[in-house]
Design a protein that fits this description.
Blueprint (H helix, E strand, L loop, with lengths): L10 E3 L23 E2 L7 E12 L2 E9 L3 E3 L19 E6 L2 E2 L2 E7 L2 H14 L10 E12 L11 E9 L3 E7 L9 E4 L2 E4 L1 E5 L2 E4 L3 E4 L2 E3 L5 H5 L12 E8 L6 E2 L53 E3 L5 E3 L17 E5 L4 E5 L3 E3 L4 E3 L4 E13 L6 E13 L4 E6 L6 H4 L5 H9 L2 E2 L6 H5 L2 E6 L3 E5 L7 E11 L7 E4 L2 E8 L2 E13 L5 E13 L25 E14 L4 E11 L10 H4 L8 E5 L5 E5 L3 E3 L4 E3 L14 E5 L2 E5 L4 E3 L5 E3 L14 E5 L2 E5 L4 E3 L5 E3 L12 E6 L2 E6 L3 E2 L7 E2 L7 H11 L29 E3 L3 E4 L12 E2 L28 E6 L2 E6 L9 E5 L5 E7 L4 E6 L4 E6 L8 E4 L6 E7 L4 E6 L4 E6 L6 E4 L6 E7 L4 E6 L6 E6 L6 E4 L6 E7 ...
Parallel strand pairs: 26-32, 29-38
Antiparallel strand pairs: 1-32, 2-8, 3-4, 4-5, 5-6, 6-14, 7-9, 8-9, 9-10, 10-11, 11-18, 12-13, 14-17, 15-16, 18-19, 20-21, 22-23, 24-25, 26-27, 27-28, 28-38, 30-31, 30-36, 33-35, 34-35, 34-37, 35-36, 37-38, 39-40, 41-42, 43-44, 45-46, 47-48, 49-50, 51-52, 53-54, 55-56, 56-57, 58-59, 58-81, ...
């Protein structure tokens, strides 16, 4: 006999369980047998389907739809796929189940009025919107994309395939879309679009809509896949209706405002398993079954389940071989969280004990519903010697899944990823599943299985194996961690193992159980040779019972709680099946387990005790007289016992406390708190203080707790780097000192010192010292500044009709001088150069002639150290240092969950970032210097689709475009004093940039019928079209004050071009970009975001070549881009708000004091323009 000692440790712990994941078999019926029509096979094919009743989509009704092979349903004939794939939002109305370039599979569709389909549709709608009255659907459109492949994938029969479904529920006054994504149905996440892979897309879009006032604009939209492949992957795991992989949206109604998603928040992925496939004889219901005249057992109201296992921790690790409960000799009034949520507490003379409620069984600390199957998952690790080999086989974290049908005692166990020779050698060790079978063995009259006596916490030591259980979690799921150590006889690869049935006698004492048995198995080699092997089995089980329970007499049935244990019982194990699947490296065990009297060769004849009752898998068998019995659904299920369905407890209001939501589980429910909070014993969601955990933040920073999260804060004068370190801020990069002062950076601060010849504090108000007499230019400037109208205005700026000469740092005349209407060149004495004057009718602005047309001068190109690129990617703003532009250096700067951030802008004065997002829509701001304040929303009303954003850091103004409302608007930086500058002759305004020096704004309009780039003063005057010829889709726009170049990125012409807006000279930087969106100028380089490449691309303006590609780790669309620039040394008339009471808006050579659109009665515009 081969003797060995193995260590087998079974850890029974918590499994976080959410909505059950969808399987392919859970889809609505489809195919020929369901009455479906089938789309003609081929790429980019579609078919029309007439509807009665009509589909309500957004605010319109449609009597026909078009089903496309590209994973979408459209309300009109879709154009060729090249016109919409990869170009979200599309120009036509559609419902994208999983849109991409798909082919090879089959697309089935039908209009169905079958009562079963309508009932299931009604149930899903009611789950998603439990507060609404139930409505019976008038029809349902079922569209199934079955085994679709990505275009260009290899082999018609090989490769990854996707299967998914869209059901359109047609109600009397609205329509609801149900999207179904099976867990095994999504095998690829991208398809080709425009020559590059692009994440599949799911969502709803109204397309282009027409308005008599605004003309053609992009309508409303709602996308589930706004974050690329990761959001597609989440479709199978999440839900908004309580069923994993199922998403429900109201897409249209008679009185429609917006797409309404289901109200049940997404759950974590369900970690469960179904029984492994085994061959079993069909079993029919016993004719002796009493068709219960009794009322089905009504489930008692269950207490909410806590998903945070540490909140109700009842276990205490005393050693590596023993894990016991620690009972306190207290009363029920003092006991908190000691009993199972499905148990009641009873006081005894010396203390209190827990007893499972009626319909449940266990030891009171752990209780599960009678008749309900038990699912287990976990991992197997170990170090095993095979035969005489001196080298052990080591393995770790092999997945184990188990499933027990408790109403017939059948247990199934599967261990995956176990390769030869270990896999075959483990086949005789059916004891891996034996402990689970004993715990939930089918109970004969007057006898109790292991779980009924001990719950899920025990310690077992045996020859051949040693096992430990650590309890059942609040979701009634077990997690089994197994550790093996010792020696096993080898089993040849390809051999079969047959384990003989056996009986095992259990002796019960106080907190101690012993048992022994003889085990036999035979190994049949591939050659046919048979080897019989046997071994002896002895084991000792220790556990901790409630010492306060009176008496130790045998109990009369399950669920009676502590103090009712038998003295001796026999476990009978038969129908043992073991198999090793070499192709899948999988071990399977199956066995039937019964616990009853000693020396009983056959079970009681009543089908409840033999397992031949035929009750539903979620029902308990109740024996009656003789051979009769009745089936009663387990707690949490309803039905006649032969067929039981889950009860959705969450339909009953008030089960969970405030700020938490109810999540239905199979047979129960639980209360779930938002991330960053946990459920207290009182059922309230309380914030988790993450800062109590050490080491969250780096050195020199401290942790600041926030509601639902935390942040790391640096001391004043420093900022948090992408690596999480506090680094000193070089304030001198933002040029805070006067231009006649030098800046010296210090640790956490800076110092300004006046240059020789000047005195003052080095910041703003400086006067000439006696070290150098005032130059001619400085004297002329001083005289001009003194010639003002007096009063309030003279404190800040001269009247704009007075010409003020410009002097450089040395007091010399700048070579270009400008008045309000004209610009000219001067010599060193300030005298005008003959013939250099240009009027406003000849040129739109001051002349700054470059030496070689619009190309930047070689001196332009310095990039300050520590400068960052900022770009938007779905709900995030990412940052990457310009000195380290690899994909690993990309770090999140700001996370705006469930939002689509479009434009990004940076304020160099206050070290803050601004952004627009269109899903709200809103405009927000966050300080990078004062992280304690956190992000805040500046503008959230009267917005529809804010896509462009720009700042004037000198005048402290905020400008934006809204392509939904077709306007250009301005406000102060805090979002107050809003004023619409333009709302006419605009179709799709997108990008906007500022030129603070000359008080200009530039914006692009990608109107497909007439794209253009326009320019005006910041006060809205002198609006002109700057570029109109040879444009396609001008998306990105940037202005470089150093080179005075305006550059744009065009997704239609696929070019990046630049122009001097004063000389109107235009040149091409690149003519082979793919699909640019955002654009920013940094020194001699241009950086643009590309939708086709999902990347940030750098261009050198001098060499006109591509210099780098930054591909973020998150594969999703990138939008606006900006940079953490230093403050330029520029000034304009509105630097101190120009003395205006409300808005001070600069213009060329002056400024305007204007009122916001919503006046408060205190604003007056005296002639508007101050000249």
């Amino acid at each position: 006999m081969f003797c060995s000692v193995l260590t087998l440790v079974l850890l029974f712990g918590a499994v976080v369980s959410g909505a059950r994941g969808l399987e392919l078999r859970d889809l609505f019926p489809f195919g020929e047998e369901a009455g479906d029509a089938t789309l003609t096979p081929g790429s980019d094919s579609s078919a029309e389907l007439g509807l009665e009743p009509e589909l309500r989509f957004f605010s319109e009704a449609f009597d026909k739809i078009h089903i496309s092979s590209n994973g979408l349903v459209a309300v009109q004939q879709p154009p060729p796929q090249a016109e919409y794939l990869g170009q979200t939002p599309p120009p036509f109305g559609l419902m994208a189940a999983l849109m991409g370039d798909l082919d090879r599979g089959l697309v089935h569709f039908r209009l169905d009025r079958n009562p079963e389909v309508l009932d299931r549709s009604k149930d899903l709608v009611q789950k998603a919107f439990p507060q609404r009255p139930a409505q019976t659907p008038e029809g349902a459109v079922v569209v199934t994309w079955d085994k679709m492949a990505a275009a260009g994938s290899d082999g018609a029969e090989v490769g990854w395939r996707n299967s998914f479904q869209l059901v359109l529920v047609l109600l009397r006054s609205s329509s609801v879309a149900v999207l179904l994504y099976p867990r095994s149905g999504l095998q690829f996440l991208s398809s080709p679009a425009g020559g590059a892979p692009r994440a599949l897309e799911a969502g709803f879009s109204e397309g282009l809509v027409y308005n008599w006032w605004w003309g053609k604009t992009q309508g409303k939209q709602e996308w589930l896949s706004s974050e690329g492949e990761e959001s597609v992957r989440r479709l199978t795991r999440g839900s908004n209706c309580g069923v994993g992989g199922v998403w429900v949206f109201e897409v249209g109604a008679v009185k429609f405002s917006q797409i309404e998603p289901g109200t049940i928040t997404t759950f974590p992925e369900d970690i469960t398993t179904s029984p492994p496939p085994v061959t079993m004889l069909p079993r029919r219901p016993d004719p002796r079954v009493s068709t219960a005249t009794d009322e089905p057992m009504t489930p008692e109201k269950e207490e909410p389940e806590n998903i945070y296992e540490d909140e109700y921790s009842n276990t205490m690790n005393t050693s590596s071989t023993t894990t016991i409960f620690s009972y306190n000799p207290d009363t029920c009034a003092q006991k908190r969280g000691g009993c199972s949520p499905f148990a009641e507490c009873r006081d005894h003379a010396s203390g209190s004990c827990c007893y499972c409620r009626h319909g449940y069984y266990g030891n009171g600390k752990d209780c599960v519903a009678e008749g309900k199957p038990q699912r287990m998952s976990g991992q197997v690790s170990g170090r095993v010697f095979l035969g005489s080999s001196p080298v052990p086989v080591e393995f770790s974290q092999k997945d184990l899944h188990s499933y027990v049908v408790t109403n017939d005692g059948r247990a199934y166990v599967a261990i995956s990823s176990v390769t030869p020779p270990l896999g075959p050698a483990l086949l005789p060790l059916s004891s891996v599943g034996g402990v689970i079978g004993w715990a939930f063995a089918l109970e004969q009259p007057g006898h109790r299985n292991g779980f009924s006596i001990m719950g899920g916490v025990f310690s077992r030591r045996a020859q051949v194996l040693f096992s430990t259980g650590e309890g059942i979690d609040e979701h009634e799921h077990l997690q089994v961690h197994t550790e093996l150590e010792g020696a096993l006889p080898p089993v040849p690869l390809g051999a079969t193992v047959q384990v003989s049935p056996y009986s095992e006698v259990y002796h019960y004492y106080d907190n101690l159980i012993t048992s022994s048995s003889n085990r036999e198995y035979s190994v049949v080699a591939p050659s046919g040779e048979v080897q019989n092997v046997s071994y002896q089995w002895r084991q000792t089980i220790t556990y901790q019972s409630c010492v306060h329970a009176p008496g130790t007499r045998p109990g009369t049935g399950p669920g009676t709680g502590p103090g009712t244990r038998p003295d001796i019982q026999q476990l009978t194990v038969d129908q043992i099946f073991v198999m090793y699947d070499q192709d899948n490296s999988l071990i399977r065990y199956a066995m039937s387990n019964r616990i009853g009297p000693v020396h009983s060769s056959a079970p009681e004849s009543n089908p409840c005790f033999s397992g031949g009752h035929g009750c539903d898998i979620n029902a308990v068998c109740r024996p009656l007289e003789g051979q009769s019995f009745t089936c009663v659904c387990s707690s949490g299920f309803s039905g006649d016992g032969n067929h039981c369905e889950d009860v959705d407890e969450c339909l009953s209001p008030g089960l969970c406390g405030p700020n938490s939501f109810c999540s239905n589980t199979v047979g129960s429910y639980r209360c779930v708190c938002p991330p960053g909070s946990r459920l207290s014993p009182e059922g309230q969601c309380t914030d988790v203080d993450e800062c109590l955990s050490p080491g969250l933040c780096g050195p020199n920073s401290f942790c600041s707790n926030t509601v639902g999260s935390y942040r790391c804060v640096c001391p004043p004068g420093s900022r948090l780097s992408p690596e999480g370190q506090c680094t000193d801020i070089d304030e001198c990069e933002r040029a805070p000192c006067h231009h006649e002062a030098s800046c010296s950076n210090t640790q956490g601060s800076y110092r300004c010192e006046c240059k020789p010849g000047f005195t003052g504090d080095g910041l703003r108000f400086l006067s000439l010292s006696s070290e150098r007499p005032a130059s001619l230019c400085e004297l002329d400037r001083a005289r001009a500044l003194s010639r003002s109208s007096g009063g309030l205005w003279s404190w800040f700026r001269p009247r704009s009709s007075v010409f003020v000469p410009r002097c450089d740092s040395g007091g010399h005349f700048e070579t270009t001088q400008c008045s309000e209407e004209q610009c000219w060149c001067v010599d060193t004495e300030g005298a005008e150069v003959q013939g250099s004057r240009v009027s406003g009718t000849d040129s739109v602005g001051p002349v700054t002639p470059p030496p070689f047309g619009p190309a930047p001068s070689p001196g332009v190109g310095h990039v300050a150290p520590g400068r960052l690129l900022l770009f938007a990617q779905s709900g995030r703003i990412e940052q990457v240092p310009l000195s380290q532009t690899g994909p690993d250096q990309t770090r999140p700067l700001l996370h705006v969950p469930d939002r689509v951030v479009i434009a990004v802008a940076y304020d160099c004065v206050e070290d803050s970032v601004y952004w627009t997002e269109i899903s709200g829509p809103s405009i927000g701001r966050a300080s990078l210097r004062d992280t304690e304040r956190g992000p805040r929303t500046l503008v959230s009303s009267d917005l529809q689709s804010p896509e462009g954003l720009a700042l004037d850091p000198v005048s402290r103004l905020l400008f934006w475009t809204d392509s939904g409302l077709d306007l250009v608007e301005v406000s102060r930086l805090d979002g107050s004093q809003r004023r619409v500058l333009f709302n006419t002759d605009l179709e799709n305004p997108r990008a906007i940039v500022t030129d603070p020096v000359y008080g200009r704004i530039f914006w692009s309009d990608w109107n497909r019928d007439g794209p253009k780039i326009e320019m005006s003063n910041m006060d809205g005057s002198d609006r002109v079209v700057l570029v109109q010829e040879d444009l396609g889709l001008p998306n990105g726009l940037t202005y470089d004050p150093q080179s005075t170049l305006l550059c744009w990125a065009d997704a239609g012409t696929r070019r990046v071009e630049c122009m001097d807006p004063h000389l109107r000279q235009r040149s091409t930087v690149s003519d082979h970009v793919q699909y640019p969106f955002g654009l920013v100028s940094v020194g001699r380089s241009l950086y643009y975001t590309d939708w086709r490449r999902d990347a940030v691309v750098g261009l050198d303006r001098f060499s006109r070549t591509e210099t780098l590609v930054i591909s973020p780790q998150r594969k999703s669309r990138v939008y606006g881009i900006s940079t953490t620039d230093y403050c330029p040394r520029v000034y304009n008339y509105c630097e101190q708000n120009g003395g205006c009471s409300h808005l001070c808006l600069p213009k060329l050579g002056g400024f305007s004091c204007l009122c916001p659109d919503r006046r408060d009665g205190t604003c007056y515009e005296p002639g508007q323009n101050w000249v």
